[in-house]
Specification:
390 residues; mainly beta; 6-stranded mixed beta sheet; 5-stranded mixed beta sheet; 3 helices; 26 strands; 40% strand
Length: 390
């Protein structure tokens, strides 16, 4: 009779099986949940709520969307719809953190309104869903409410006067000045917008002809503010409006400059006009002979300016006399010309024409004209004048 053997499971194997099935049972019941969303770059983070609007310039640099979870999980899926364009993006992340874009790369969808659906799974590759959450949010360029608005020139072309000329603009009423902010008006010159003056009113006195632009600047002048714009950097006559705008842009400061502004051209309106001889040929008398001319009525004398009549002799236009009337007494036969000169006699003006340089019988009209031209002075000499032969 054969001996009957009985089979017995080793105790250590029973222990392993018990541990395996206990772990499997626990893992099947353990699954994480979605706690929320945040914008993060791994160092700093900002939570995002359903329906929220966030400014991209206030988010961490190189940010991504991160899924916050509680408990265990193996993967997550994102379905992101751009509500403005209809574009849909889908990704699956198998490694924590679960980010969009995948792999902690920087947000690449720009600004707009987005619908985010996130599914959390127990295993890799989106197997066995644990939880789901959907939110919408809007990303905008900036939360900066500062708005310089626009200006309109009272007169787009103004005649230069003496000693100064006032130019002005009117706000269109669309300026926004946030609480704690200030605004000033800035005057620039030329195509390069070189800053010349600032004022609390959109009006300025200028001394020279040229192109000017009045701008509005809305800024934070609080030195303790992260948006502080330090205007002490401005060097009048050197710093440009573009340089100030560059500081605002590069530093991400909340401020607003009306770059286009209100352009105003200040013209040198001085115009000597023309003269016509009363008689182009006159017989020499004794002891003197009067020669005269008549203005054609087309002379322009800017505010603060003066005019005189100048008598020259010969082809070289040598200056012989000046008068407040276009008539002169001469004592010799010859060629004479009567000219009109419109000039600024104010010694405090940058357009001052110093007539003390004239030496009668020596200085020529061409020399005076050369001074006007070389110095860029606003003045006018009727060079052709009214020629008269005595």
């Amino acid at each position: 009779m054969k001996t009957k053997l009985s089979f017995q499971t080793p105790k250590f194997l029973l222990s392993l099986l018990l541990i395996f099935f206990t772990t499997l049972s626990y893992s099947q019941s353990s699954c994480g949940e979605i706690a929320g969303f945040e914008f993060s770059n791994g160092t700093s983070s900002i939570s995002v709520a359903n329906g929220e609007t966030v400014a991209i310039d206030e988010l961490p640099s190189d940010f991504y969307l991160n899924l916050l979870i509680n408990g265990k999980s193996g993967s997550a899926k994102y379905i992101i719809e751009n509500l403005d364009t209809g574009e849909i993006h889908r990704i699956t992340e198998n490694v924590l953190p679960y980010t969009f874009p995948a792999g902690n790369r920087s947000w690449n969808l720009g600004v707009g309104s987005f619908k985010i659906k996130a599914n959390l799974y127990k295993y890799n590759f989106g197997i066995k869903k644990c939880d789901s959450n959907t939110i919408t949010f809007t990303v905008i360029e900036s939360n900066c409410a500062a708005d310089a608005g626009t200006l309109k020139a009272v007169e787009s072309t103004v005649a230069l006067g003496s000693p100064t000329t006032m130019i002005s603009a009117e706000p269109d009423g669309n300026m926004t000045v946030p609480a704690g902010y200030s605004y000033i008006y800035v005057l620039t010159s030329g195509e390069d917008l070189v800053i010349e003056q600032v004022s609390d009113m959109p009006k300025f006195d200028v001394l020279e002809a040229g192109l000017y632009t009045i701008h509005t600047l809305v800024y934070d002048g609080n030195a303790d503010s992260p948006n502080f714009l330090d205007l002490s950097i401005v060097e009048f006559g050197t710093t440009t409006g573009g340089a100030v705008l560059g500081i605002v842009t590069e530093a991400g400061i909340c401020a607003s400059l009306d770059v286009a502004g209100a352009p105003i051209t200040v013209e040198c309106a001085a115009d000597a006009g023309t003269l016509k001889a009363v008689e182009s040929t006159v017989a020499l008398g004794s002891p003197t002979t009067m020669i005269s001319a008549e203005p054609d009525g087309n002379m322009t004398v800017p505010a603060g300016y003066s005019y005189i009549y100048v008598l020259t002799s010969g082809e070289d236009l040598v200056i012989e006399q000046v008068s407040d009337m276009p008539k002169f007494d001469v004592v010799e036969a010859g060629l004479y010309t009567i000219h009109t000169l419109v000039y600024d006699g104010n010694a405090d003006s940058p357009n001052f024409l110093d007539l003390s340089i004239v030496e009668f019988g020596t200085t020529t009209g061409g020399a005076v004209l050369g001074i006007v031209t070389e110095a860029g002075i606003c003045a006018s000499l009727d060079v052709a004048g009214a020629p008269i032969t005595v």
